Amino acid sequence: MIAPLRAWFDARSLRERRLILVMVALAVVTVLWAGVIRPVRGGLSDSRERYTQAVVRLGEAEAALSQVKAIQRRQLPTPNGALVDVVRARAESAGLTLAGLDAESPERVRVSIATVRAGALTQWIAALEGEGVLVDSLTVSGAGGTAVSAQMTLTARGA
Is the pTM of this model over 0.70? Predict the structure, then answer.
């Protein structure tokens, strides 16, 4: 295979041989550049970009983890007294009229409200959660205009 190629090359003039050698050298450089250097550079660039994104994600995850740990360390309140009494007192202080308040157990009550503004209801629920009373289930339906009616089951935190 090489002998016929060598014979062909030797049959060329000096100028043709030089041009062929330059052409082969340029072809080798082009193949190296297109087949090795360019893909390696692209891979390194992609790796650097992925590394930077991973560092950013790690920082975000560590920040979120520290927030979760801070929440876990915080002492969460529990309601003082019987849950029925706490719910009744908070409803009265918020100006809500309860249609029904039934204790299912000492740490679980069922509450019905015939009509209330949606904003007032959510503020009352948020205040209850701040005091350690959690919403176990909630059903809200429209009661005409901006008013809603609600049926919910509340539990004491830790129950």
Answer: no
